Amino acid sequence: MAANTYEERRKKPPTLSHRAEFYSMRAVFAGLQKLPWARACAIGERLGALGHWPLGIRRDVVERQIAAAFPELDEAGVKKIAVGSYRHLGRNAVEAAILPRLGIDGVLGLVERVDGWEHVEAARSRGIGGIMVGGHHGNWELMGAYLAARGLNPEVVVRGAANRLFEDYLNANREKLGLTVVHDTQAVRSTVKAIRDGKFVAILADQGVLGLASSFVPFFGRPAKTARGFAVFALRLDAAVCFMDMLRLPDGRFRVVFEPIEVEKSGDRDRDVDAMVARYSQILEKWVRQYPSQYFWQHRRWRRQPAETPPELRDPTLKDPSKWTPSR
Fold it and tell me: pTM of the predicted model, to two decimals?
């Protein structure tokens, strides 16, 4: 999305449809705010499940992508992960909406286990800022809140939502939790300044949208357009990079994981960037394989691919393969 396009959209008044969607959502969330955390989240799961059936919102996309990622699964296995992903998405939405009421202690209390925090501390000890990069897996909104609760208070790079009212509501909640919100159209200048000032920047890199600087790297064996900005910043500024994920456990609490993504300089900047992006994708795939229902399968992950992609590795969501077109 071009910066001027985003700014122009922001100036337009919300449509009647956007207002109806937003205030309906606010009414639901207001009711959930009054319930105990576990009960509100359980309702979120049930609401999310409606997206799979009877509503069928992007159900074909979800099931086709899961089947492509896990070819060993039968139809029942694919459906089980698909239903789980809708339930997880519904729960995530409710958790994001009511999260500010928890406060720092409440956020930390949701975490049962932390793996790899020493990598974050190593990044902090270098005296400059660092980059936290994750994907749309686990609870990415709670991940940001956890980083803030641990004292990082990161800048989070976000994309604009179609509904401006919802976007403002979500960003206000993020700021209440101690996050600084930066739109991706302003991310280049902001990220450089933040890191040079010793701050951390959090980015979700697993959506290679049109017009965004990206690399094509394997994800479940298929080339996927993946944002490369985090790697460019790391190499340019000599900043440490950590992969982050917040995984929901069966009891509703979370396991937080951090893994370093090494910054290696061979002298070939493009090759080094692609190597970091590929490593990021490998780590994300590893955790998606372990917790497949916690991935955002509703996004067409392989929609944009290079022209040389062989037919068997192209976008599995297309019912008519002849309509496949390479990325721009």
Answer: 0.94
